[in-house]
Amino acid sequence: MDIPLDQLIEGNNTFEGNSGGQICHDFDWGQWGWYAMIVRIYYDEAPFTVTWDTEFIPDQRKGSIRLLARIQDETGCWYVTQAVDNLSLEREDVSVKMYTAYDIPEKFWVRDGEKKGCKIRIDNLDRASEALFYHRTWNGGKEEAAVGIKDKPVTINKWSASAGGEEHFYALSGIKVPVGELLQGINNVWYESTTVHHGIEILWPGPAIIIRYEK
Question: Which one, of 60, 3, 62, 73, lies nearest residue 37 by Cα?
């Protein structure tokens, strides 16, 4: 949201929010957890440069990319550039595809011995060289509070891995998956946790698999 500059002061600024009730699955515990707030103030910028790693960025339509850079200086201040439109990825030797999940549970949260999953369909594995499994979680760390005694709570077909992420915090995690463990067609993704505490939440829009192909 836009903030009028005359509403900000030099020094400490105070922000306040409030919460109403739950909108579904009501158990009288309406709340929001605020971890951080970011205020962006736009200044004239020095000529900084940054390199964008596109190794696992999926192929895009020509001219469809809109890009800006966020730059943090030595004082901790963040600078955000103006957006640049109509950019394209040009890669002669590789192609990158993203495959998204379906049959996602409405309440994708596992704890106390639960096992829940979804599916990801991969159309083609010919000339696939690398694969990355992405998911966004809350409380997805290795700690007992997240997974209990399960060392590897994520299973893709018959291959298992740690979930990544943070205890009692949200995170976007990328996990390298051996291409040989993937199937052309339907791949089953499962999550398990034995903790009687909160367990792992898998956040919308669910996991995805990104694959690099050699041309």
Answer: 3
